[in-house]
Specification:
By secondary structure, the chain is of the alpha/beta class. The chain folds into two domains: 234 residues, Rossmann fold; 103 residues, UDP-galactose 4-epimerase, domain 1 (Alpha-Beta Complex). Helices cover 43% and strands 14% of the residues. It is built from twelve helices and eleven strands. The protein has a seven-stranded parallel sheet, sandwiched between helices. Strands 7-9 form a two-stranded parallel ribbon. Strands 8-11 form a two-stranded parallel ribbon. Strand 1, helix 1 and strand 2 form a beta-alpha-beta unit. The protein is globular. 45% of the residues are buried. The model has no long low-confidence stretch (mean pLDDT 97). It binds nicotinamide-adenine-dinucleotide (NAD) and 2'deoxy-thymidine-5'-diphospho-alpha-D-glucose. The site of nicotinamide-adenine-dinucleotide has 31 residues, from helix 1, helix 4 and strand 5.
């Protein structure tokens, strides 16, 4: 792995991965291709370690000419593909951008890689890798007694977001099966941590609580997610890139599965300690209309990556939540840049003003 193309590297996980890779690999050169949608920001790439080994390019993964030119110019041997539309609620209100970025974008990258590495034979095939970053949501939803999702659980995506990611997974798998393009896929559970866009539950709750706004809990708040601290995800991807087998899929998860309401209450209690005030933050909790088609429970069986690559999550939830809240408190300019975005304020109105109080 010498010249790595990271897509979506100005977003939450992608920017944490760029930082992580520059730290753990002292030789690697990174080209970071990101369209800078509402979710991507150069703020996320400030103060990179050894920034000379990182080149940022603003552009769309659907732009085949640009992707081909970058592969050739930088002699890319590894692609780590994060770029996507990533928010389930947005996919429900407006699915089309998800098909474009997640399906057409992934296809464009796969086809460009096949052309450059396999048709043009630009470098020995044993030296290249396409890693596709995906989600546990492709597996659908679990009832309380179901076993956790494994790599062989049949796909049953329930939201337009999940369906677009499932589609991109199938394309990535097919490029390995049909053309022997060296592909790995990872399906990961809910990430949280520094630089997560505050449309997602944890940073939204932290920011709303700090500004005395209601803390919206969908439905009864008993939905379950499997929470993973973002740098643990980055470490898992790096291990898959360096030690994972081409053609394989790896599930990644946090072994942390509290109900959403418990997460929100935990964040409130944490903020009561970090930012004491007379009225406890829990009083801001507000139950609101549920997400349509809301998946009830996710849980990941991570025994394959544990046994084959020796990975396991390092952070427990209380330490990870504390780190996340402290990071947000220590980075007011990052918060201010997002709160200034008109698009963000429009999104908050669109998603929350129409949700009636459900209890
Ligand atoms: P994010 O929304 O924070 O960032 C996505 C980034 O992709 C942004 O910087 C955006 O500008 C960029 N992007 C979007 N469309 C693009 C396009 N057409 N061309 C170039 N860049 C484009 O997302 P995230 O939470 O960091 O997720 C990254 C990846 O990880 C996604 O593929 C997502 O499906 C997957 N994933 C996320 C989670 C999670 O909990 N956040 C969990 C598992 C998997
Ligand atoms: O499971 C992995 C997925 O996790 C990723 O693939 C997605 O990119 C990522 O966005 C995330 O999807 P979720 O829908 O699980 O994340 P979100 O933070 O939007 O919601 C987490 C849970 O909290 C979910 O059950 C919905 C609920 N929720 C969310 C918001 C934004 C609320 O109760 N209130 C809210 O305001």
């Amino acid at each position: 792995m010498k010249n790595v193309l990271v897509t979506g590297g100005a977003g939450f996980i992608g920017s944490n991965f760029v930082r992580y890779l520059l730290e753990v690999d002292q030789q690697v050169q990174i080209v970071n291709l990101d369209a800078l949608t509402y979710a991507g920001s150069l703020e996320n790439l400030k103060d990179l370690p050894d920034a000379d080994r990182h080149t940022f390019v603003q552009g769309d993964i659907c732009d085949r000419d640009l992707v081909r030119a970058l592969l050739q110019k930088h002699q890319i041997d590894t692609i780590v593909h994060f770029a996507a539309e990533s928010h389930v609620d947005r996919s429900i209100l407006s699915p089309e951008p998800f098909i474009q970025a997640n399906v057409i974008g992934t296809f464009t990258l796969l086809e460009s890689a096949r052309q450059y590495w396999m048709v043009e034979k630009s470098m020995p095939i044993e030296q290249v890798r396409f890693h596709h970053v995906s989600t546990d949501e492709v597996y659908g939803t679990l009832s309380p007694e179901d076993p956790a999702f494994s790599e062989t659980t049949p796909y049953a995506p329930n939201s337009p977001y999940a369906a677009s990611k499932a589609s991109s997974d199938h394309l990535a798998r097919s490029y390995n099966h049909t053309y022997q393009l060296p592909v790995t896929i990872s399906n990961c559970s809910n990430n949280y941590g520094p630089r997560q866009f505050p449309e997602k539950l944890i940073p939204l709750i932290i920011l709303n609580a700090l500004t005395g706004k209601p803390l919206p809990v969908y439905g009864d708040g008993q939905q379950i997610r499997d929470w993973l601290y973002v740098t643990d995800h980055c470490e898992a991807i790096h291990l898959i890139l360096t030690q994972g087998k081409s053609g394989e899929t790896y599930n990644i998860g946090g072994n942390n599965q509290p109900a959403n309401l418990t997460i929100v209450e935990t964040v409130c209690d944490l903020l009561d300690e970090l930012q004491p005030q007379t009225d406890p933050h829990r009083n801001l909790i507000k139950f609101v209309t549920d997400r349509p088609g809301h998946d009830r429970r996710y849980a990941m069986n991570i025994s394959k990556i544990e046994n084959e690559l020796g990975w396991k999550p390092r952070h427990n939830l209380s330490d990870g939540l504390l780190d996340t809240a402290q990071w947000i408190l220590a980075n007011p300019s990052w918060v201010a840049a997002i709160q200034k975005q008109r698009e963000y304020q429009t999104w908050l109105t669109k998603n929350y003003e129409t949700r009636e109080k459900s209890s």
